Amino acid sequence: MSDPISIADEFVAFYYEKFDENRAALQPLYRDNSMLTFECESFLGAPAIIGKLASLPFQAIKHKVTTKDPQPGVAEGHILVLVTGQLLVDEEQRPMSYTQSFYLVPENINGQVRYYVHNDIFKLVYG
């Protein structure tokens, strides 16, 4: 599986499943040079990113992906993925729209290509 569409499909499904179940389980997807910008606030490195995600003020969340659009990145194997969707938090009945972009970078781990998140930008969409 080396085409950007398949990689994006698998990554997005895995990411939001883990996010909805246990945000701390996302730590292996980030590295020390990874950056998250969450609603205009930036966090550098896996510990800071997971710290931010774990501190979000809700107990339950459910993401529903509406679209995901991958593009090849600047270097071979790199992939930019733009996601749009809706999310429900806690007992809220009205979904909130969001957009999130991921810049995925391949790395070889024990002979297998794995992707990590180099850049992650999340925004709620109002209006």
Report the structural category: alpha+beta
Share in β-strands: over 45%
Spatial strand order of the main sheet:
2-1-6-5-4-3
Taking all Cα atoms into account, the compactness measure Rg is 14 Å
Q: Identify the overall geometry.
A: globular
The string of secondary-structure elements, in order, is HEEHEEEE
Task: Please summarize what this structure is.
By secondary structure, this protein is α+β, with helices and mostly antiparallel strands. The model has no long low-confidence stretch (mean pLDDT 94).
Walk me through what this model shows:
- Helix content is 21%, strand content 50%.
- The chain is an alpha+beta fold and 127 residues long.
- The chain has a six-stranded mixed β-sheet with strand order 2-1-6-5-4-3, with helices on one face.
- The mean pLDDT is 94.
Task: Name the features.
single chain; 127 residues; alpha+beta; 6-stranded mixed sheet; 6 strands; 21% helix; 50% strand
SSE topology:
Blueprint: H1 4-21, E1 30-38, E2 41-44, H2 46-54, E3 61-72, E4 79-89, E5 96-109, E6 112-125
Parallel strand pairs: 1-6
Antiparallel strand pairs: 1-2, 3-4, 4-5, 5-6
